[in-house]
Amino acid sequence: MQKLLGYMRSAVQKYNMIEDGDRIAVGVSSGKDSLALLAALARMRDFYPKHFELVALTVDMRFGNKDGDFSEIRKLCDKLNVEYHIKSTDLAKLIFDVRKEPNPCSLCSKMRRGALNKTAKELGCNKLALGHHLDDVAETFIMNLFGNASLDCFMPVTYLDRSDITVIRPMIFARESDCARVARRLELPVKKSSCPADGNTEREEAKKLLSSLEHKYGNVRGKILLAMQNKELNGY
After folding, report:
1. Which carries the bigger pLDDT value, residue 161 or residue 196?
2. Would you say 169 and 156 are in contact if contact means Cβ atoms under 8 Å apart?
3. d(CA 139, CA 193)
4. Tell me, what's the pLDDT at 193?
5. CA distance 64 to 45
6. Are 39 and 8 in contact (CB under 8 A)?
7. Which of 126, 172, 214, 233 is most deeply packed, by most CB within 10 A?
8. Domain CATH number, residue 42
9. Domain with 113 in it
10. Facing residues of 59 across strands?
11. What is the DSSP code string of the chain?
12. pTM score of the predicted model
């Protein structure tokens, strides 16, 4: 946890992610990354010099037209003294049954993010924290490079004027392995995704490509982030 907290504090301070009085919604799924972010932010709340509140928020996609079981996440939130909210949606039905999207990930991400933004605002939050880490930065860069012919990626901090909410990504300096390690050691309630597209996405292909490149060129993911910072690419 201390290693992850160190990465997060560096990112938070470098990009001024947290201010006094912030009420931060943490987008939480059953995945290791978002759960590690929640646990780490709850720990940071105890010592960070700027006071902030935390709210955990889950968007229930309702796979199979059934409510998801998030009881273990609720128990974790009770343990961490973090209020917890679940936003029920019919996104899975819309994307997979009605629209029958052949490549659902992009639309799903946009719609899920919209639900997160709207619900966070309704809960009185001014910021939304997402569990993207360094691996996600590199994978998104590769996907945009080969898929859209653009040198682009998400930013560490993004103000969304339509939603009047600021999205922050405190784990951008941490590796996916750091999140996995925290999830194991804290025995966080990680569950495999119920999404039918899980494990068969463009992101998985980018992950495999980056792993193969690292065998020859070393820390490719870190080098991509450094290159983005050196060129101030997309706000870095």
Report:
1. 161
2. yes
3. 19
4. 78
5. 37
6. no
7. 172
8. 3.40.50.620
9. 2-235
10. 87
11. -HHHHHHHHHHHHHTT---TTEEEEEE--SSHHHHHHHHHHHHHTTT-SS-EEEEEEEEE--GGGS----HHHHHHHHHHT-EEEEEE--HHIIIIIIS--SS-HHHHHHHHHHHHHHHHHHTT-SEEE----HHHHHHHHHHHHHHHS------SEEEETTTTEEEE-TTTTS-HHHHHHHHHHTT--------TTTT-SHHHHHHHHHHHHHHHHS-HHHHHHHHHHHTTGGG-
12. 0.89
Q: Return the residue matching tokens 């899920």.
A: 112
**In whole numbers, what is the pLDDT of the chain averaged over residues?**
89
Residue 97: which pLDDT band, with cuts at 50, 70 and 90? confident
Q: What is the pLDDT of residues 180-230, one digit of tens each?
A: 999 999 999 998 877 776 666 788 888 888 888 888 888 889 888 888 877
Q: How many domains does the chain have?
A: 1
| Other beta carbons less than 10 A from residue 164's beta carbon | 10
Q: How far apart are CA 10 and CA 13, in angstroms?
A: 5
pLDDT, residue 227, reads 81
Q: Tokens standing for 11?
A: 């990112």
